[in-house]
Records
---
Amino acid sequence: MKWIGLLLFLPAPGWAQQGSPLANPHGTLAVACNVCHSPLAWAPARISAEFDHGKTARFPLAGAHATATCRACHATLDFRGASTSCASCHRDPHRGEVGTECSRCHTTRTFLDRAAMTRAHQLTRFPLAGAHLTVDCESCHAAQQGRLTFVAVAVECSSCHLRDYQAARDPDHTAVGYTTDCAQCHAAVTWLRTRFDHAATGFALTGAHLRITCSRCHGVGQFQAMPSTCASCHQADYDGTTDPNHRAAQFPTDCASCHSTARWTGARFDHDRFFPIFSGAHQGKWSSCSTCHIDSNDFRQFGCVQCHQDAHRGRGYTSQQCYSCHPSGRGGD
């Protein structure tokens, strides 16, 4: 009961005159004492949920600011004149290179939040894309004299990727004299996938040609005056083929006349360019090449009389004579 009586007769701090022991030490702060203090004791102060720092001080407390102690920003009990600028509390590790407004790149949740940094970076002369979005700031903004560098940072590819350029061996970029502008061939998404327009060289890559390494055709670095004929790469395949024997049959070395770039096997010789067997009277009259080409080592030789021996009633024409009169395989030509 004596405590209740004491509380009832204690003068409220708001009634105190300036200079008295109960004068408001917080300057012009117009907030009831019980918002922060208990009637049992002034200390420790306990901030009530009713206190709105954003409304009272025009500085909303959010993120890490909400967990900071009052003394972290208010060096004295007089809250008048407390600065709301970031630099008043946070030492600028960038030494003014990017301004003193931390919120341009950082959030109150954490100084390591990259979202705001990325948005700010998109307004620079080097917008981040692809894998560049995932690298640490220190990778490009190297520390000099104990701080990161942000002003006058080079944006050329070689400023970060010169070692990659020099180490490249397939092909050897230095030996070939490739440009150091990596973006000409590489994308920011992945380093290993290039976008060099090979079609612009006059030899478009299709099918299996897309899957081979550059060195398969260009050796250790020959890129100028490269032959584009099939035989320049596939002469050994041509010479080693025995079914049929391409060399003996004197097939053309233009592989594309029978093969496609999709796959080497399953070639289809366009026989109808020379003599129609997939259309006309000979369609379906043969089962294999050997039906007409009796010498598998020489496809220049062919036989007509096996099937047409009585065409002229035993006059003994040779197959070559048949062809000389019937080049299209039709009886009336």
Note: The first helix runs from residue 2 to 9.
---
Amino acid sequence: MPRKDGYVLCAGTQGKPQTREIPIILLTAVGEAVPSTRYSHADGMATEADEYIPKPIDTESLWAAVTGLL
């Protein structure tokens, strides 16, 4: 997302009554394997996202997360 990331998205939606019930799944290309980044599974879950999935994406895990949230 240009000029935004999942952290900003969650902060902007989870704090508002009209959008806080929308499920959010964060997908990231940088995970625990990139030590120079601020992104991690723990930080992603701390954003109050409903799920945090690192890439490459396992389609079965993604489908399970989506159907579980619906």
Note: The chain has a mean pLDDT of 75.
